[in-house]
Amino acid sequence: MLGKEPKISNSVIRRLPIYLRLMQLLKVQGITTISSQDMGVRLDMNPAQIRKDLAYFGEFGRKGVGYEVEYLERKLRQILNLDRQINVALIGAGHLGIALSNYARFQSERISIAGLFDADPNKIGLTVGSLVVQNFSELTNMVQTKNIQMGIIAVPAIAAQDVCDSLISAGVKIILNFAPINLRVPKEVVLRNTDFTTELQSLAFYIDE
Amino acid sequence: MLGKEPKISNSVIRRLPIYLRLMQLLKVQGITTISSQDMGVRLDMNPAQIRKDLAYFGEFGRKGVGYEVEYLERKLRQILNLDRQINVALIGAGHLGIALSNYARFQSERISIAGLFDADPNKIGLTVGSLVVQNFSELTNMVQTKNIQMGIIAVPAIAAQDVCDSLISAGVKIILNFAPINLRVPKEVVLRNTDFTTELQSLAFYIDE
DNA sequence: TAGATTGTTAATCGATTAACAATC
DNA sequence: TAGATTGTTAATCGATTAACAATC
């Protein structure tokens, strides 16, 4: 079962949650079946791309008919591992951390913030939603006891590499970083950066012209 | 001057702020000259790509020597329009909005949040940093009087399309959206989405394997 | 001069789109 | 059956990387 798959690109993976979200929306709207053509119109994407993306993982559609909304939703959840509980550690209990913590809980019940950490003594012990801010020094401990698989870094740039190193040495292999800094990670770690400053600066290019 | 340029891709534009940030760091470190080779090592990128990216905009390096850090920084700022004041409207004064508002001011002095808006009567009038939360109904007005060129949407998904439409009809052509929804915009508007939920869901794919 | 490094062209790689046979 | 739509192969497009002449 290993080593034979055609190695699916990150571009494809990043589109899957878009499809999943559309399925959820269609379900609410009472639509039970949808063609790639129609998905393309709604998402402003090429239908061939949608079919090709889905075909990497199996044959989910029916020729002449399209995709069954509930079935495709279930399949997408399976592919993305969203059919099981995922535990996340969130480091940084500033405004961003609090926003993310609320956000995440709201959106997808299966991805749960299992621990919220900060190094600031003034923040430790505070309650955020259903969580209590824990001392950052507890991180390694909690990663093990709470079976944490993903880490979110929401601390200032200056502290980010330290936090990143701690996550990795505690065994976390998947990291989402919000600090504006290029983190160094070993190649087996999956790191994604969401850098607000960089986004804004690149958008500034389009001013005027 | 119009219509002759080779049309620079978004991939290239999005790397420019990365180069800019490196120049700022090198300057602090007292490094005055750097080769694409060395930049590549520091950013974990291919040096040929770096040279090609920069060459779209001019000849900034010296053969046999490399790039002069201060000069390249200045040029990158010019290319990205960061050599002038940029005014941004931020809609949504929740935790995310407040985080973004602090973040932006901290990072890049020339991109300034010129107005912070919310529709919630309980939030209007509150002070966030140096800003006072304004009624969302003031948006159109402020876009004109404050010469606002960019909009940031940090409201719940349910309200995002309305906010987006208001920004566009007020004349804003560049929008950064944080709400987890596919917004509809006319093709002359530049829209970028930063969707935390989608990021997290796509990262979940890498669990286990 | 000899060594280093750019700017740029050509080669490669990968991702998107078109086309269509299979089939519901 | 006739019309619609998938899954997939082939064609196209675009982005990345290699290579090297020019030159500091």
Provide structural commentary.
Two copies of one chain form a homodimer. The longest helix of chain A is centred in the N-terminal third of the chain and has 19 residues, at about 10-30. Chain A is α/β, with parallel strands linked by helices and about 210 residues long. In chain A, the strands form two sheets. Chain A has a seven-stranded mixed sheet with strand order 6-7-5-4-8-9-10, with helices on both faces. A three-stranded antiparallel sheet of chain A has the order 1-3-2. Chain A contains eight helices and ten strands. In chain A, a hairpin with a 3-residue loop joins strand 2 (about 60) and strand 3 (about 65-70). Chain A folds into two domains: about 10-80, Arc Repressor Mutant, subunit A (Orthogonal Bundle); about 85-200, NAD(P)-binding Rossmann-like Domain (Rossmann fold, 3-Layer(aba) Sandwich), CATH 3.40.50.720. The first copy, chain A, has helices at about 10-30, 35-45, 45-55, 70-80, 95-105, 140-145, 155-170, 195-205; strands at about 35, 60, 65-70, 85-90, 110-120, 125-130, 130-135, 150-155, 175, 190-195. In chain A, helix 1 (about 10-30) packs antiparallel against helix 4 (about 70-80). Chains A and B meet through helix 1, helix 5 and helix 8 of A and helix 1, helix 5 and helix 8 of B. The first copy, chain A, binds a DNA duplex (24 and 24 nucleotides) through helix 3 and strand 2.
